[in-house]
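Instructor's aside before we start: the two examples that follow are unrelated to each other. I chose them only because their records fit on one page, so don't look for a connection. First example below.
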Amino acid sequence: MLEERQIIECVPNFSEGRDMSIVKQITDAIESVEGICLLDVDPGEATNRTVVTFVGSPEAVCEAAFRCAKKAGEVIDMRKHHGAHPRMGATDVLPLIPVSGISLNECAQLARQLAVRLANEAGIPCYAYEAAALRPERKNLAVCREGEYEALHEKLTNPEKRPDYMPLTAELTSGQDDELTGRQVDMSAIMRTGCTAVGARDFLIAVNWNLNTTSTRRANAIAFDVREKGRPKREGNAITGKPVLDANGQPVMIPGTLKCTKAIGWYIDEYGIAQVSMNMTNLSVTPLHVAFDEVCRCAQNRGLRVTGTEIVGLVPKKALIDAGKYFLEKQHRSVGIPEDDIMKIAIKSMGLDDLKPFNPREKVIEYMIEDRTTTAGSHSATSTPLASLSVKAFAQETSRESPAPGGGTIAAYMGALGAALGTMVANLSSHKAGWDDRWKEFSDWANQGQALMSELLVLVDEDTAAFNRIMDAFSLPKKTDDERAARTEAIQQATLHAAQVPLRTMQASHCAFAICKAMAQEGNPASVSDAGVGALAARAAVLGAGLNVKINAAQLKDRATAEHLIAEANVLIAQANEAEKEIMTIVESKL
């Protein structure tokens, strides 16, 4: 099945918030990396600090993070810096944050590699903090930043306090240990750049729960009910009683119900209501929809009601998709529906449009990346993703005299339609009157079908891209022996790829038979013909993609690889013929 795209976010804080020409040099360094989306630049004059947000693939983000930190060290002189916010370097903090397709532990490893590179190549000392910390106490940023910039000189020479990664001198190699003994550290250069805390942390969602009250005290009571820290334990009266202290003289706390959350209550003049304002620091521990339900429960216990939700800033797509599926399952409805529909359920269920319209294209990180990438590359009709075209436009594009999109692309689309038809029957069956106890059975099939359809829609464009890659290889120069050799190798690699893509289409399309067969046998009888058409489409996809495997494999000089590809294709073709025959027998028996 289709793998989730790996996306990470980076939110560096730079010690400059007044001179925008300096900030522009830093953000230019970020945008110089291909594949990076710069989402936000937030300067503060009083703090003399700018918070920048950008996202992309792990490789692109790490490269952009290195470049911007290096540039900040060149254009910001920490010896002259003054501001209201704690800081210790030109780039003060540099956290990597998993958004999709990558774990926090993987981001921690990337953060450590980034810190090594900054120390070795840019001469910037680095602490590793949060999930990337090498010492338990340094998980806390405040420990790393203790004494701030002014204490840096003393910390650099103290083995217990100095940064985890120190710059190497020209004659030292990265394989040597990190001891200062015998090292010629350029202290003046370090005092100019300061020190950076490089780390990895979970995505933080800032969310406000809207209440049908103007009482800050009531909102605070709910906040104390749910936040992890909870409320102070008191003697006698829970509100006015004397706080209970522990042996160290610290208040004893009664924990709240939601782990990894911080919350307070406040009143917002703009809206004329009170809110519970919450920071959610680990969505895998406390998902957005779980927090919503719990705040609703606690509000109801106090005679209040949550009227809606306000998300501040951006949100990962998974948070809303998980929420939409959660509310669908509570209704005993199929979760195997289009992503846009699931998103609408999440928006309406949590009242995300309570105070103002909620546009996922402007709030969801993955959608912003998609839209900016499409806008940047959509200067012609052919650069627009085929899967995003209307049915009419897709047919017209196929009919033009250009050789792509061709048979392989159409085969992938037929496979997607086969999976879509099987999914449709599953969704109709899950909501059929009298079959309420079977909703989960059909929802599971529909969910599989949606994932399969998504994979095949990606292959629609991949097949055309594979053909274009061959054309690009043929256009390479061939004047010298070296150029001719490189051109030949590029053509062979592109041809191999062009054979492998339709093989993936065959494999994915073959999976549609299981869905169509199950729906022909167990699904809504009124839709059995749709399951049959789905099977026919899947067979056409497998056989059509098989032709593309064979025509490209025929051009490979590596005959062993070519014969292996063709043999795999022939097995899938034979299986497809049998599967389609079996399903059509079932369908005919029920007509």
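Example two begins here.
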Amino acid sequence: MRFYLKFILTLSLFNASAQLPVGRDTLSVMEAGKILRSPWAGGLNFCQFSKVDLNGDGKKDIVVFDKVNSFAYGVVRCFINESNAGETKYRVNGNLKSSFPVVDNWMFFYDYNNDGKEDLFTYVLGGIKVFKNTSVGSTISFQLEKTRLKSDFTPSSSPTMGNIYSSPQSVPGFTDIDNDGDMDILTFSSTGFKIEYHQNQSKELYGISDSLVFDMVDYCWGNISENSCSVTLNDCPLQIMYNDAVQKVLHAGSCLMCFDRDNDGDQDLIMGDISCSHVTYMENGGSVSNANITDTTKRFPNYPLLANTQVINLNSFPCTYFLDVDNDGKKDLLASPNDSYSENFESVWYYKNNGTTTNEFQFVKTNFLQEDMIDVGEGAYPVLFDNDNDGLLDLLIGNHGYYDNGLNKTRLTFYKNVGTLSQPSYSLITRDFASVSTLTNTMFGLVPTVGDIDGDGDKDLVLGDTYGRIHWLENTAGAGNICNFSNFKFNYFGITTPSSYAYPQLIDVDRDSKLDLLVGMQNGRLAYYRNTGTVSSPTFTLITSTFGNVNVRGNPAVYLTGNCTPFMYDESGSYKLLCGSTSGRIFYYDNIDGNLSGNFNRIDTNVNVIYEGMQSALQYVDITNDGNRDLICGNYAGGLTYFSSNNVGIGINEVSLVNPNDVIVFPNPVKDFISIKINDAYKFDVTITDVLGKTILSKSDNFERTQFNVADLPSGVYFCEIKIRNKNSDQSVYKKIIID
């Protein structure tokens, strides 16, 4: 897998001319009147959490490894800590994940060498791999330190070295068990249901804590065994499992969180298991040198005297993480599933540590970080269209489903564009657009596309599903009216794609003024259904299920499916084709016009080296009305990422003067007072507006510097127009302001 990814990345370096002229960016998004801090973060599903200083500012930021779905290849998402003490303000930085090595299955950070920088521990076949944190200042870097951690399994006799075992589903416990200053490891045995204690010998051997040398000193730490969500106390065998001649079934997977709940000096445990919906808390009634679990409970945290307490219950394989979320100096608790078939929309549960002498956790919310981003559960398939005929592109998102009482239930989520032509802003209207939930008893995984297929002047909605069928939601509103998708026509065209899953796009492929259907499929191929009907009465006929010989499956040894999601568009009179894929990479084709029965030219297999998680789905349209296309990319984590043609990391064009340093707006983000400094200005007018274009503050000045008090303004994104009148000409400069 790693060689394959590196090969693709190398190819992309020699294919720069194929890259799209877009860069990572943001647009304002609101939900329930709140402006989201990280709307285009990409969604979160099944997550593991660590705190690491990513930008060298002394604050610990949050690094998330999202498994995304049941596949091993997840995605790293980084959230910069913008909080003061007692706050939980984090903002996504999508560019940082490229600084991390490729990891599989799980990822955890721990500063094993006590240099103040958290090192990276991750899964390798049958064991644990380590990357040393070699970052300098705000430049993040890691180097491979250990390909596999090893331990002496018979430290009292002749050495017997072996891998410290981890299953791909497990997350071992990393902590200082014996309180000597170096990092030890708890992990389940590969041949049973006992917890092995691998003691780090760095302090004992070298007097310092910078090495990874382990002895397996306890094959049954805590004097317990675990099986099928049940912990048995006082259950240790008479011989070490490592030497047991009878090999037992490999332990499927558990996650261990070590922490001293009662501050008595020894480590207690919270354990999640692959077959459980609750976590199990285990109280260590022993000592530092002799752990002995004396009490367990599945109802954790459960404090009858605390209000708003909610027991962790996440349907499938919940895991917990001990980190200071609210920056008050005390470590809090986060819980998230470690596998699919579980909560995916509100899947990051946050419990605040309200303890004084002990660690006591009080429930706060079920959607930490997710509350500040677009997240539609599992899968995100966007389409942009003008729903209310106001000239602005609205956003509709299909999905595989929101988790609901044991099932993923497919919905269409709708965001209205409440901004302007040049400054789009989106507001959540409904998570059940067109009441699709009432239609989906036999439909799953709906993927939308929009176009006027019956020639009546309004746009219709066409939906593909997981069974390869195509459904028609007819718009009965008429030309110029707000869309009314009230007439549902189940599998109206009688289409069932040759390979299951249907990812449709309406486009006039043969340029005969009738909309045809391109349908991507699970096998990675693309089917072409030509409209052989009339303008007012469409009929779609399969021409080929291997259109253009498009194939986005990738390496079959890695990816069992391809799941091609097509987006064809016209560029200067010629069609180009982008295709998302299971791998998350974006494929790029041309040589389409006049070659509908031939093989298209594959320009690139990893456009812009974009990886936002598995199952990419695309919209490449001009969102900001500047004549250039922008890119929205959905992924299986249920979120979206935005890349604009501005390519400057903001949401609008910043019109510069001859000298780009002439206008300075600082600090930004801002909490109270924001200053505007202009060099060589005769006079200037400043207007600050909200995302809806409403004027909030304005001022005229004839000095080089002015200041605004914005402390009373709600947090969010604002736009600042600075009209400058100097000796030679009048010019306007536009800046984005973020108020925390």
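The radius of gyration is 28 Å.
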